[in-house]
Write a structure and sequence with these properties.
This protein has 218 residues and is α/β, with parallel strands linked by helices. Helices cover 25% and strands 17% of the residues.
């Protein structure tokens, strides 16, 4: 269950409004959400850290312009869920768990490049508790970088390329699988366009190929 946080940070909708805090200013640590887990998850999607808007409304990907719910719905050939109850039902129906790599950090605004002093969630322990998890999707470059640095250093120091898949068997909490867990970096669901991804449609093939329905999906 997602708990509404008591102290949401200020939200700025325009990247141009964001300015890094001065070096002498110490920001108050912000804490993210607990995992949102169906009864028997097969897929875990990891973001970096919730946006200020998501923290304020107490929901994963709560900023209405974020493309997450559109991407996952279209990856499964479903209509985009509206409202928190529909979103939770969608995740349960498709055996998807949500969490973030970062448990807490210091950050002004919502930009990933403003994250400082991050501490990770216990992802290895989590996946050991749910042996049915077969795939982990890393939502964006910051999630992938923090996952390698803080959660899965055994995967090596080389950054994840976009769309790259690696096999992870956590050294600290081995899973009951000979092949381990498939981990892939996906394009960020952030609405901010890039040179490569101008819209959600540009990102959808990556999300569909890794997350979409499969013949072995029970």
């Amino acid at each position: 269950m997602v708990e509404t946080l008591d102290s949401p940070q200020l939200y700025c909708a325009h990247a141009a409004c964001w300015k890094p805090p001065p070096p002498s200013r110490r920001l108050r640590p912000v804490t993210g959400f607990p995992p949102l887990v169906p009864a028997a998850p097969r897929i875990l999607i990891l973001g970096s850290f919730p946006s200020a808007r998501s923290l304020a409304c107490g929901q994963y990907y709560g900023y209405e312009r974020n493309q997450f719910w559109l991407l996952v719905a279209q990856a499964y050939g479903e209509k985009q869920p509206v409202g928190w109850d529909e979103k939770r039902a969608f995740l349960a129906r498709n055996a998807i768990a949500l969490w973030d790599v970062i448990a807490s950090c210091e950050r002004m605004g919502s930009r990933d490049d403003a994250i400082r002093a991050e501490t990770p969630n216990p992802i290895a322990t989590f996946v050991a508790s749910f042996p049915g998890i077969e795939r982990i999707a890393l939502n964006g470059g910051k999630a992938a970088a923090s996952f390698l640095a803080l959660v899965a250093p055994e995967l090596g120091r080389r950054p994840f390329a976009l769309g790259e898949t690696r096999i992870w068997q956590p050294a600290s909490a081995p899973v009951s699988s000979e092949r381990g867990i498939l981990v892939r970096r996906l394009p960020s669901s952030s609405p901010i366009p890039t040179q490569t991804f101008r819209s959600a449609a540009d990102k959808l093939p990556f999300w569909t190929e890794f997350l979409g329905p499969r013949d072995d999906k029970g």
